[in-house]
Design goal:
single chain, 315 residues, four-stranded antiparallel β-sheet
Length: 315
C-alpha cells in the first residue's frame, strides 16, 4: 500500500478509535522516515528525548530531528541488532555473522558512538559477546558465550573500561534483562524468578499474591515490569507491585512509570499507575516498543504494515 493510503487509513482508524475511547484522541501517530527501497525496518531503542534507533535492511539506522541516518553494517558481518540507546545518544547493539554456513550465529557487541561502531572487549575464554542493556552512565550488561546452544554467562562492561568486561557473580541460571541508571541489574532467574543485583548483592522481587511464575521485562528508575502468561504488573519497590489492567502485554516503561505494549488483537496501548489502559491510534494493528522520558512512544505497525516504525505523541 502506498504511504498516502496508509496515512488516510491511519486518519480514519484514529477517528473511529477515539469515538469509542475518549482518551485515544489525546494521541497522534506519525511515521518515522526511511530510505527509499521499502526494506524491513524496526525501531527498538530511544534516547528518551525524541531520538530513536533500530534496524533497516539489516543495518543500523537512527532517527533525530525528523530525519534518519543509515549507518549500515560493520565490515565482516551480515546484520546488526539495535538493543538500547542512552541519553547521550550512544546506541547499543550486536553485530551478527554466520561463520562457515553455521545455523547458529556469532555475535559481537558494540556501542555506536561518534559515528562509528566501537566493539566491546571480550572476556578471556569466550569468543562471543552479546549486549542486552545500557544505562545513561554508559555501563553495559550482557552475556558472553562460545556456542549459544550450550548456554551463556552474564557479563558487565563498566563505562570507564569497556575493553575489560567482568563476569557477574550471579546465580548460574540468572540471565540479565536490563540495567537501571544507578547500575542495578535486572535478572531473570529460571529457578527463583526475577531479581535485582547491585554491588554484589542479590535482591529477589516479591511476586504478587497468587502468582507462581514470572519473568522480568524492563527496569527504569527503580520501577520494574513483570509478566507471566496471564497478567502483567509494575513493581514500584522490590516487595510492592500493582497489576496492569485489561490483559495488556507490556514491552517497556519510562522513569515516571508510563508503560507501553499492546492488547489483543495487537492494538498498541499505554498505561500509567492509577489510570486506565489507553489504546493508541493505528490503521489496523500495531504495538508499542519503547517509551521515552519525554512521554513519546515508538513502535511498529502490524498486520499488513509490519516492519513499519512509527511514533505516538500526545496532542
Amino acid at each position: 500500500m502506498k504511504r498516502t493510503s496508509m496515512v488516510l487509513a491511519a486518519t480514519v482508524a484514529a477517528g473511529l478509535l477515539s469515538a469509542g475511547t475518549a482518551s485515544a484522541s489525546e494521541w497522534t501517530m506519525s511515521y518515522l522516515p526511511l530510505p527509499a527501497g521499502g526494506a524491513a525496518a524496526r525501531v527498538t531503542a530511544t534516547d528518551g528525548a525524541g531520538s530513536y534507533a533500530g534496524t533497516y535492511d539489516g543495518g543500523l539506522i537512527t532517527w533525530a530531528g525528523g530525519t534518519f541516518e543509515d549507518h549500515g553494517i560493520p565490515a565482516g558481518y551480515t546484520s546488526v541488532e539495535a538493543v538500547d540507546e542512552n541519553a547521550s545518544g550512544s546506541v547499543l547493539g550486536n553485530a551478527v555473522s554466520y561463520p562457515n554456513g553455521s545455523r547458529y550465529p556469532d555475535k559481537r557487541a558494540f556501542a555506536f558512538e561518534n559515528g562509528g561502531f566501537q566493539f566491546l572487549g571480550k572476556v578471556p575464554g569466550y569468543y562471543n559477546t552479546l549486549a542486552i542493556g545500557m544505562n545513561n552512565r554508559g555501563d553495559i550488561v550482557g552475556e558472553v558465550f562460545n556456542d549459544i546452544r550450550y548456554g551463556s554467562t552474564a557479563a558487565f562492561w563498566p563505562s570507564g573500561d569497556r575493553a575489560h568486561p567482568v563476569l557477574l557473580d550471579v546465580p548460574p541460571l540468572a540471565d540479565p534483562v536490563d540495567i537501571d541508571h544507578d547500575g542495578t541489574i535486572l535478572l531473570n532467574d529460571q529457578i527463583n524468578g526475577p531479581a535485582l543485583w547491585k554491588d554484589g548483592v542479590l535482591q529477589r522481587l516479591v511476586l504478587p499474591e497468587g502468582v507462581r511464575d514470572a519473568r522480568a521485562v524492563a527496569i527504569r528508575d527503580g520501577k520494574v515490569l513483570g509478566a507471566n502468561s496471564s497478567v502483567n504488573w509494575l513493581w514500584t519497590a522490590f516487595d510492592t507491585s500493582v497489576e496492569i489492567p485489561g490483559n495488556m502485554q507490556t514491552t517497556a516503561l519510562n522513569g515516571s512509570g508510563l508503560v507501553t505494549g499492546w492488547i489483543s488483537p495487537r492494538i498498541p496501548t499505554v498505561w500509567s499507575p492509577g489510570g486506565p489502559i489507553t489504546t493508541l491510534p493505528v490503521p489496523l494493528e500495531g504495538y508499542g516498543v519503547v517509551v521515552g522520558d519525554n512521554g513519546e512512544i515508538a513502535g511498529q505497525l502490524g498486520g499488513n504494515f509490519d516492519n513499519t516504525p512509527v511514533v505516538w505523541r500526545r496532542g
